[in-house]
Amino acid sequence: MKAWPLPRQQLRGWLQAGFFILFVVAPPLDIFRFDLTLGHFIVLGMPWTLGLDAFIHGDIGPVAATLNIIVRGFLPLLLVGGMLIWTAWRYGRLYCGWLCPHFSVVEKVNALMLRASGRPSIWESTPLPERQPDGRLIKRDPRYCKAI
After folding, report:
1. What is the pTM of this model?
2. Stronger pLDDT, 59 or 70, i.e. the higher one
3. The predicted structure's pLDDT at residue 82
4. In whole angstroms, what separates CA 98 from the centre of its chain?
5. Cα-Cα-Cα-Cα dihedral of 104, 110, 116, 118, to 10°?
6. Which of 65, 71, 114, 140 has the lowest CB atom count within 10 Å?
7. What is the dihedral of CA 8, 124, 143, 14, to 10 degrees?
8. Which residues contact residue 99 at a Cβ distance below 8 angstroms, ignoring those fewer than 6 apart?
9. Residue 7 φ/ψ, nearest 5 degrees
10. Radius of gyration of the chain (CA)
11. Are 117 and 127 in contact (CB under 8 A)?
């Protein structure tokens, strides 16, 4: 059986970078954003409202307004929430470890800190040993050690 074309950690890095780019460009490209001046969401370039303007203007009755709130508000929330819960149950920490933009940035910052100072964060008092438990050798860059 053939393995993935990329090693798993390299695939994870590409997915993290791709989702970070998607996270950054989604609002300006109107993929998904909340417009403060309009007061509603923009999804794939189209306005996503609850449809209550027609109720305010008297064009629809309370039953139609209630259906709008359920179909355009609660139903999408339940579907997205259900998909997130199912994904967490089925695939564990897929989002947190592979796709979350915050976690990928934290990993990159920790890797830079480790390379620069030998410590994973500024709160660690002593650097980690050069030889890691998995056998990797981590050398500190002396250019950065003077500043810390």
Report:
1. 0.64
2. 70
3. 94
4. 9
5. -150
6. 71
7. 20
8. 15, 16, 19
9. -60, 155
10. 24
11. yes
